[in-house]
Amino acid sequence: MEPKYKAKLLKKEEIANDTMAFYWEKPEEFTYKAGQYCDMTLNKPKVTDEDVKERAFSMASAPFEVGIMTATRISDSTFKQWIEDFTVGTEVKFDEPRGEFTLHENVATPAVFIIGGIGITPVRSIIAQATHEKLPHKLTLLYSNETPQDSAFMDDLNGFADKNTNFTFIPMMTNTDSNEWSGESGLIDADMLKRNVSDINKPIYYLCGPPGMVKDMRQMLIEIEVDEKNIRIEEFSGY
Question: Where is the FAD-binding FR-type domain (predicted)?
Answer without folding.
Answer: 2-104
